[in-house]
Structures are given as structure tokens and as C-alpha cells.
């Protein structure tokens, strides 16, 4: 019995299995490209954070609030019979708070990476009602209203870099001539040692309260800069936030979605309304060291994302790399099955490596010229090369043209996958089904055993 049969008698079924194995083997270097995309994306995120930090970082603004030092008689005594008196700080939130934020976002570039920073003109307008102390364990014996401060808490210490100009405070429509200090550190105003006072990132100014039972209105103008995102906390019993920005790709994040939003090519507007019961914050509370109650789990706002980032698109397409490599190989195989021509496994490998390099080229060029231009150029080059190679392998210009059209369709689907987040799975699964159905139809009468000569 002859073991090495002529090429024309070799089983096409065995060849299809071999082609599938080659596709799977070449999927491995495609996954190495996936690792490179992750590394480049991580580096880009690191550079973005550095640029954000220089501008003040992602800003989280909580306030304004009134903070007053107080003494509490705990009702307990020391061993010598002296009453135990605790010191604390009482925090009062405004009855109404309206925040208007006008944001001008721009992109800054470092090397080949870009990050979005912004200048925001923020106006906080509202009213404090009667300042009623919260219930405490013991009895409040003294509230130092003459040493009360008005404060705005920030999300981090680096946020102070984003204060572009001196804040201006109006009380009952009149300039309060307030001198703001960096940080919410009561020791600066009370004379207490720093370790016994609040020490939070933000700004604060002395604001003595002549009559805590008499409410007052306020207006605070706060020019801020930041990078990447802008968030607010609903510190008012009734909080209304209106944000306008010239950025076309916002991502609304946080504990509350906007009640109204309009996103256009030249920017967006958004509004939030948070009622008292939804904010999960009492009207007043004690805070000996921290003001975490103001913003923990309550902030909301917008991220200024870069929708043109190439890394997410390339990653999405790489998830389907095995499928599209299989489509390219199936195209070659169908030519073999229907025309009698033959392609060597080495030629399949070269064709598959071309598809792997395609993803690498898209990643490399998109960092310099943008994703759209990079994809169009590299796809055209890869399709032209693959079509010309098919014409050479099968010794037919017509077959090369058919291969060119088939590859063009495949790369068109890759583009849809790269650009479509919501429909990527649907497109990929329908494409896979269509490729299998076409192969079954074309090979429905094929002799998979290779048409061996009968004895």
C-alpha cells in the first residue's frame, strides 16, 4: 500500500483540519499584540494621570458648609470627679444649593499621548436656614459661633493646584471680604492644635455667625481647573447642578444620573436635581476629624473621555482575531476546494502573519495619525497585499480579485467591530454564522475523502 499519495489525492478534509490548526497557532501571536495594546494603554493612562495631576486632578467639590467648634458635656466624670468635656465640630449644610458650572475643556499633549484638562467657572448660590445643632450623646454646652467657618471640601490635596483665582464670597448680597485658607483645618481659626482639629483638603474662611437662628443667603464664585472629570456632592437639602461644557464625549458617572442632558457635536449640557431624602445626609452632624459624610458614595458628575482612543477599538477587534483569521484561511481553502489549485501550509502561515501584523500596524500608526487614518491605510495595504498574494498562489488574476473583495468585506467587518461597542457581539456572531454557512454551501458536494482511486 502506498503511503505518500500524490497531492491531487490528498484528503481535503485533512487539509481543512490543518488549516484550522494553523489559524489557532497564529492566534497566539495575535494575543501577544493584545498584551502590547495593554502595555501601551497602561502607559497612556499613566501619562494622563500625570497631566491631570498638574492641572489639579479629577475634581470633587463638596460644599459649601458651615463648621463651628463646640463643647459637649458627656455626663461622665473622671476619677477625680471632674466632668468630661469633649470638643467637636458641628457641620451645617445649606437649605438650598444651586451650582452652575461652565466648563472649557482642551487637550494637552505629552509625547504621543493626550489628556483632557479643563477650566471651570463654578458659581455656588444658595441659602442657609436656621442652624440647628444635631443630636449628640451628652449635652452641647458651647458653640463658638464667632469662630465658625465656611468651607468647601475637595477630593484630594492636589486639587488645590486647580484653584485658578481667589474665590469670592457674598453674604446676603454683600461682599464678605472673606480670606480663604488652603485646607479645611480648624486649627487655623480656633487656635487648637492641628491634631485636634479637622484636617481635610479644600478651602475655608472665617465666617462668624451673629445669629444662628437667622438664615442667610450666600454666593461663592470658585474658578477651578482640573483634568479628566468634574464631580459634585449634593450637600444642599435641595441641590440643583447645571453643567455646560464644550466637550462632545461626556460619560455621566456617580451616584445620580442627570435629570436632563443634551449631547451635541460641539458640547453638552446636563442638569441634576437631588432632593433632601435622596442625598442620604442629615442637615447637621458632628465631625471631629473627617468630613467623609459629605461625599462618600454621593458624588456625581461627568468624565471628559476621549472616544477616539485607539486602544479600546483595537482590543475589541483582537477579541475576534481568531474568527477573522479563520475567514481569511477559509477563503483560500475554498479556492482550493472549488478550483483544484493547491496552496502550501507555509503560504497559509505567511497570509496569517499578514493579518497579525495588521493589528500591530493599526496600533502603531493610530498613536500618531489617529485611528481612522491608521485603519484605512493599513487595511488598504493588507487587503492589497493579500489579494495580490492570492492571485500569485492560484495563478489567476480573477481569483485574486475575488480574494481582494472577500478580504475587503472582512476588514469592513473588523472596522465595524472596532467602532461599535453596543453591537460588537452581534456583528461578530452573525459574521461567524455566515462564514460557516457559506463554507457549507460551497462544499456541499465536495468529496472530503480526496477522490482516491478505487482498487
UniProtKB/TrEMBL annotation:
Coiled coil region boundaries: none
**Pfam families given in the database record:** CreD (PF06123)
* Taxonomic placement: Bacteria, Pseudomonadati, Pseudomonadota, Alphaproteobacteria, Parvularculales
Is tRNA processing among the key words of this record? no
Entry annotated with the keyword Oxidoreductase = no
Annotated InterPro entries: Uncharacterised_IM_CreD
Where exactly are the transmembrane stretches of this chain? 12-37, 317-335, 347-365, 397-417, 423-442
* Protein name per its UniProtKB record: Cell envelope integrity protein CreD
Q: Which UniProt keywords apply?
A: Membrane, Transmembrane, Transmembrane helix
